[in-house]
Design brief:
Low-confidence stretches: 71-75, 552-561, 610-631
Radius of gyration: 26 Å
Helix content: 40-55%
Number of helices: 23
Number of strands: 22
Mean pLDDT: 85
Distance between the termini: 55 Å
Shape: globular
């Protein structure tokens, strides 16, 4: 009887705890909602559109982390590119907006194409006769592209401009794998499919080095050209040619050195900067030092909603392409194909644009997306592809069902190749005295045997499968680009191309962004007026995340990251991002699809988001996960 009473007390205690937790959550959300409502009501009638870009700008944000949001340790981790562009361009024609202010302290970065698109939106504000002001303690390559489009660039007196250009070191795991006794069975096609090289050798091959150098040179040249046009006063080449000499000439002051090189206009702390903005747009209703009449980005965006009356459907392929369903920020083959089918099922949709910002991933998932597009095309809908920062490997695969492909000179594309990696652990287990023995009905029984060793027959079959998929990839490209398979093979082989060279090689048709792609799709469908505008088919957000997001926005959301204020703190943040990317790539190789149309090296050109809890499993989780996965 006493046991029953004890169990009953425990159950009642759990029930009371859950009720208490629910009440705390309810009142916390109520408080946050009321606070957000008060913030929105307190927006000034006119002032500066204020964008505190403390997170990365991406094509499609990942879902909100509900638990981190409730705990107050962070909310939505990314800004959507088209939201930022829409707000800035709306500000250009809004008489209530007197200026646009970008706070770039803690900016999470973004791809070069995305930064240039935001820059174009800022140009429209300036063309409307309104000033654009930016301020930061540290400008890197991405944030300086935005700053170059400003009428005034401010830098903290203790800050610096840390533009470095693309490039850096890659890690090679061959020595570690050998020491652990892990065998990496590599199946590949393409001389330039360098994604597998970290697991097969200690340094990059001559072919990979040549391709990487050409890519970095092209991307950097485009960056210099873009910044030079946006801000002719910036002597970036002189600044980078001998930064120490420039620093010595300015008494060792990094901020004054940047100002002397024309990279920034003024030096000032946040209060000085805020007072200057107040002189332009007016003071806040209850001013504190450095305050001015500011209209926050999130609130302004809510008042300028996206139109939905267009007849050009837009579906996004963003992030890694994975099998099955996937949340926003990843392109699940089934998820994206379902969105394409939803668009086709709408009678009002007369054309489709596929916006691609993906380094690829699963070849099977890419084919699932391509097939959905091909079916839409077979029904007579014009299909136009718009490539963003990256549209490589699987990202190019999905583009082969289109009538036309748009890209930018800085788009990273190509990487037409296929590979697979399968680790086995027979030598590692033998080192600790574990061996295996098997009975087989056929040479393929129990394969792939990652414990006892993969058989030659399986290796031959896997390599043949990769070669077969590569052949299909080549055939798709040849058919779409009106080339012979032999010519496609010459420019394929897994090599990555910048958009400018891809255009010369006829892998893309025209230069242009999403707007140009929508206009072309509308032209092909003979649409005009409002019908020629875009209608976005986005994945439905998680219901709980959507509910929380209604309340936790703007200042009600906790800061996501600490702003780097000097070179060493910026370097520390870069190291963390590199660690995230390494763990994500390693985990993806053993837990993702085994046959991949993927461009791992392309990921260095995209912003690194925070590592999820699932990506923190460590080596043991990674290795155990690999042992449980069939090919």
């Amino acid at each position: 009887m006493s046991l029953v009473k004890t169990v009953w007390k425990i159950m009642m205690g759990v029930k009371d705890a859950l009720v208490l937790l629910f009440l705390i959550l309810f009142f916390a959300l109520l408080y946050a909602g009321l606070k957000a409502a008060r913030m929105e009501e307190s927006f000034p009638a006119s002032g500066a559109l204020y964008l505190a870009l403390d997170r990365p700008i991406v094509e499609q944000p990942r879902p909100i982390d509900q638990y981190a949001m409730v705990a107050g340790t962070g909310g939505s981790g990314e800004y959507r590119l088209r939201d930022v562009v829409r707000a800035i361009e709306a500000a250009a024609g809004d008489s209530a907006i007197k200026a646009v202010v970008l706070d770039l302290d803690g900016f999470g970065g973004g791809g070069q194409v995305a930064m240039q698109r935001v820059g174009e939106a800022l140009d429209k504000v300036r063309a409307a006769g309104k000033p654009v002001l930016t301020r930061a303690s540290y400008y890197d390559d991405a944030s300086y592209v935005l700053a170059a489009h400003a009428s005034e660039v401010w830098l903290d007196p203790l800050g610096m401009v840390g533009v470095t250009g693309p490039g850096g070191s890659n890690l090679y795991f061959k020595g570690l794998i050998d020491r652990l006794g892990v065998k990496a069975h590599v199946y590949r096609v393409g001389s330039f499919k360098s994604a597998v090289e970290p697991y097969t050798q200690a340094e990059q091959s001559p072919e990979a080095r040549a391709a990487n150098e050409a890519l970095v040179t092209a991307i950097w040249s485009d960056w210099l050209e873009h910044v030079g046009k946006a801000r002719p006063a910036a002597r970036v080449r002189d600044y980078l040619a001998d930064p120490l000499a420039l620093l010595r000439a300015n008494g060792g002051d990094t901020a004054k050195a940047a100002q002397a090189a024309g990279l920034v206009d003024k030096l000032g702390d946040p209060v000085t900067f805020g007072n200057h903005v107040a002189e332009i747009v007016g003071e806040a209703s209850d001013p504190r030092p450095g305050d001015y009449a500011a209209i926050p980005f999130e609130g302004y965006l809510r008042k300028h909603k996206e139109g939905s009356g267009g007849q050009v459907g837009v579906v996004t392929v963003a992030g890694e392409i994975v099998d099955g369903e996937a949340a926003p920020g990843q392109a699940g083959g089934t998820s994206v194909a379902s969105l394409i089918n939803d668009a086709v099922a709408e009678d009002s949709v007369k054309a489709l644009v596929l916006r691609v910002d993906s380094p690829g991933g699963s070849a099977a998932a890419a084919e699932e997306i391509r097939l959905a597009l091909a079916q839409a095309r077979a029904k007579g809908l014009p299909i136009v592809v718009s490539m963003g920062n990256v549209a490589a490997s699987g990202g190019y695969w999905v583009s082969t069902a289109s009538d036309m492909i748009f890209a930018e000179p800085a788009t990273i594309t190509g990487s037409i190749g296929v590979f697979g990696i399968l680790p086995s652990f027979e030598d590692a287990l033998a080192k600790v005295g574990i061996t295996s023995d098997a009975v087989k009905a056929t040479p393929l029984s129990g394969e792939p045997d990652v414990i006892g060793g993969v058989s030659p027959e399986f290796n031959a079959l896997a390599q043949a499968s990769v070669e077969d998929i590569y052949g299909k990839f080549i055939g798709l490209v040849a058919s779409n680009r009106k080339m012979t398979p032999q010519r496609v093979d010459e420019i394929a082989q897994g090599r990555v191309w910048a958009g400018g060279m891809a255009h010369q090689l006829k892998l893309v048709d025209r230069f242009g962004g999403l707007e140009e792609a929508v206009a072309e799709a509308a032209r092909r469908a003979k649409l005009s007026g409002d019908a020629a505008s875009a209608r976005y088919f986005d994945p439905e957000p998680d219901s709980l995340a959507q509910f929380l997001g209604m309340f936790m926005s703007g200042e009600a959301r906790a800061p996501a990251i600490t702003a780097p204020r000097d070179l060493l703190s910026y370097a520390a943040r870069q190291q963390r991002q590199i660690a995230v990317r390494i763990m994500r790539d390693l985990k993806g190789l053993v837990e993702g699809p085994s046959i991949r149309a993927d461009c791992l090296e392309c990921r260095a050109f995209t912003p690194a988001s925070a590592m999820t809890s699932g990506e923190q499993a460590g080596w043991l989780g990674i290795l155990l996960g690999a042992a449980q996965r069939p090919l």
